[in-house]
Amino acid sequence: MAFPARITVIAGTLGLGGAERQLYHQVRALRARGADVQVLCLTKGEFWEEPLRETGADVRSVGRVGIKAVRALRIACAVRRHGSQVVQSAHFYTNLYAVFAARTGAAREIGAVRADATSEVAANGVFGKPSLRWPRMLAVNSRRGLRNAVELGVPEDRLAYVPNCVDTDAYRPRPKAASGRLEVLAVGRLVEQKRFDVLLRALARLPEAAVRCTIVGRGPLRRRLEGLAGKLGLGPQALMWLGERTDMPALYAAADALALSSDWEGTPNVVLEAMACGLPVVATAVGGTAARIRDGVNGLLVPAGDPAALADALHNLARAPALRRRLGAAARAHVEESCSPSRLMEALAALYARVLP
To answer: pTM of the prediction?
Structure first.
């Protein structure tokens, strides 16, 4: 397998999030192949900083506050001192830092597409299209992202598919205690993209004795969503808010199913983790989710923005324990086959073989 001897990874944040978890998996894979890795982050003192250091990577903050041009020069100097062969971005919005740092030195850059490309370009304003089109190579984590990038003008030979992976040892099926109703878990930032309002409206259509939902995550919409839950009559017997948590394997173990109501996604870590834990997933048919879940085979897919369809799918799971077991077993088998760390090693090796001169 071809791996660079020295690589710099540029991250916008090391907080709790899917892109950051995948960054950790990739750095661990690189370190296992003997690569000298430095991680340059715009933030400091966040969750993944210490686990990354434990892999042997050098983790440094380059500062979020200040003039972007000064930060870019700071990153370029760190890359040159390190002697990196490859400069890789962990987030879409740090792609241009990778381009500048690589091209002012003797390195090759790899940008990142972590969602569906289209939403990322739109979210980054005037920097959106350059962040997509300027990197000489882009690592994309979903087939939908690949298709959208091509439609937005990126040549196919500058795109590489690097799927998300999941630690199938840490995330595995565990015995469950029956509670008499369907325990649904929903995980994500409380932002517009995740459409927790659709999930709340779906829950309000279900008998309270049939389903209870636990929402894990924090974000700017928390108070608005709590207000909506109150208007819909969703009390503590039907809905629990946990905020941000790090004990995810235990939360999956306590759940019977995962619900994802997003309007767009790349390949959500939470879906892969739930599948690895043998949970049936009810998700909107968006982004990489639709590529991982085969409706009625290893999960259930519903249209985005449709509370009635989401409610029907959850009600079907609540009434059919045998269906839950069948979907959960197939979900675990799919993750073992397609999303294990060994698959990540293969994808990274193919990526670097294309990038390195």
So the answer is: 0.84
- Does the structure show a pLDDT above 90 at 132? yes
C-alpha to C-alpha distances, 38 to 12, 125, 218, 243, nearest whole angstrom: 14, 29, 29, 31
Pairing of strands 211-216, 239-243: parallel
Query: CA 314 to CA 32: how far, in whole Å?
Result: 41
Of 335, 356, 355, nearest to 164 by C-alpha is 335
pLDDT in tens, 245-257: 888 999 999 999 9
Q: Show the domains of the chain with their CATH numbers.
A: 6-165+340-355 (3.40.50.2000), 182-338 (3.40.50.2000)
Determine how many CB atoms are found less than 10 A away from the CB of residue 263.
15
Q: Are strands 159-161 and 108-113 parallel, antiparallel or unpaired?
A: unpaired
Contacts of 221 (CB under 8 A, 6+ apart): 190, 191, 192, 196
- CA-to-CA separations, 78 to 37, 102, 306, in angstroms, rounded: 12, 11, 48
CB within 8 A of 127, min separation 6: which ones?
93, 96
The DSSP annotation for 243-297 comes to ES-S-HHHHHHT-SEEEE--S--SS-HHHHHHHHTT--EEEES-TTHHHH--BTT
Mean of the per-residue pLDDT values for the chain? 93
CB atoms within 10 A of CB 289: 24
Q: From the CB of residue 235, how many other CB atoms can be counted at a distance below 10 Å? A: 10
